[in-house]
Specification:
alpha/beta, 10 strands, disordered N terminus, 302 residues
C-alpha cells in the first residue's frame, strides 16, 4: 500500500509539474506575441497612399504586430502627427519631403534627393527614412497612344519637336507655372502646339478619350495610365523632381522593434510605378475598395 501511495504521489506530482510547464509555455507564447507590440500606421487621404498604408499594416500584422490604422490624415498635419507620436509610420514622397517639409531647393536626381532627405530627417526630426521604393508619383505628360505611335513620340523632347502636330490641354494655371509650361519651355525649348485648350483637371483623360486633345499633364501613377489608350512620356531632361515613395518611421519604433524596417522594406521592394498604377486603377476605375485591393496584392507577396 505504501508503495502504491508513493507511486500515486509521484504520478500526481509529475502530472502537476507537466501541467505547470504547459501553462508556463502557453504564457510564454502569449508573451512572445505581446512583445511584438502595437504600431500605429497612418496615411494621407488619397487612393495611392491608402493602398500603401494598408499594405504596411497587413505586413506588420502578418509578422505578429498589433496594428492601429489612422488613415486619411490631412496632408498639412501628417508629418507633425508623426513627429508627435500620434502615428508611427506612413508613406511619404521624396519630393514632398525635400521641398515641402524640409524646404530645400529642388533637385532632380532621385538618389541624391533620397540621401539628403534620409540624412536630414534623422538629424532634424529623429525619423528613419526606410528604403526608397521604385514607384514614383511625380509630374509627367500623358499622350494618346495612337498619336504617340503616329508621330514617333516617346519622350518630351520628341513632343517638343512634333508640337505643331499636337493638340494640348491642361488647367489654365499650368501655362503660367514654373513646374508647368514655363518650366517645360525653359528646359526643352518652345512648344508651338497646334491647339491649346483649358479644362478642369478631373476631366483630362475624358477629354483625351473623346479626341478633343492629344496630350495633357498628369501624374506618373495616374490610374488611367494602366490602359493601352494612353502612355506616359519620358521626362528625358529631368525637368521634374522625383516623388519616389519613402516609408517614414519614428526612430523609437525601429529601435524598439528590430524587424520593422525589413518588413516594410520587403513591401517597398515589390512595388514599381507600373504596379502602383495598376493598384490605383483597381480602386479609381474599377471601383474596388482600397483595403480589398491591398489585401489581394499582399497575398501575392507571401
Amino acid at each position: 500500500m505504501k508503495k502504491k501511495a508513493a507511486l500515486l504521489l509521484t504520478l500526481a506530482v509529475s502530472m502537476g509539474l507537466t501541467g505547470c510547464q504547459s501553462v508556463s509555455e502557453g504564457k510564454n507564447d502569449a508573451d512572445s506575441v505581446q512583445e511584438k507590440g502595437s504600431i500605429i500606421v497612418g496615411s494621407k487621404g488619397f487612393t495611392e497612399n491608402l493602398i500603401l498604408s494598408e499594405l504596411y499594416a497587413l505586413a506588420l500584422e502578418d509578422a505578429g504586430y498589433k496594428v492601429e490604422r489612422r488613415f486619411e490624415v490631412s496632408n498639412a498635419v501628417i508629418h507633425q502627427s508623426l513627429c508627435e507620436g500620434e502615428i508611427d509610420l506612413y508613406p511619404e514622397y521624396t519630393g514632398t519631403a525635400l521641398m515641402t517639409i524640409l524646404e530645400q531647393p529642388m533637385e532632380t536626381d532621385p538618389q541624391a534627393v533620397y540621401e539628403k532627405v534620409k540624412e536630414m530627417y534623422a538629424s532634424e526630426y529623429e525619423l528613419d527614412v526606410l528604403e526608397m521604393c521604385e514607384a514614383n508619383d511625380g509630374n509627367g505628360l500623358a499622350i494618346r497612344a495612337d498619336v504617340a505611335e503616329k508621330y514617333g513620340i516617346k519622350n518630351i523632347s520628341d513632343l517638343q519637336d512634333k508640337a505643331s502636330e499636337i493638340r494640348f490641354g491642361c488647367t489654365s494655371d499650368f501655362y503660367e507655372r514654373e513646374d508647368g509650361l514655363l518650366g517645360l519651355e525653359k528646359v526643352y525649348g518652345s512648344f508651338d502646339f497646334k491647339d491649346e485648350n483649358s479644362f478642369d483637371n478631373s476631366l483630362k483623360y475624358e477629354v483625351m478619350a473623346s479626341d478633343e486633345v492629344d496630350c495633357v499633364p498628369g501624374y506618373t501613377t495616374d490610374a488611367q495610365l494602366s490602359s493601352d489608350e494612353f502612355i506616359l512620356l519620358e521626362d528625358d531632361k529631368q525637368l521634374w523632381p522625383p516623388y519616389n515613395v519613402i516609408p517614414v518611421v519614428r526612430h523609437e519604433i525601429t529601435e524598439k522593434y528590430s524587424d520593422v524596417a525589413d518588413i516594410i522594406n520587403g513591401v517597398s521592394a515589390e512595388i514599381d510605378t507600373k504596379t502602383m498604377t495598376e493598384l490605383n486603377s483597381k480602386v479609381d476605375l474599377e471601383k474596388e475598395e482600397y483595403d480589398d485591393v491591398a489585401e489581394e496584392f499582399f497575398e501575392t507577396l507571401k
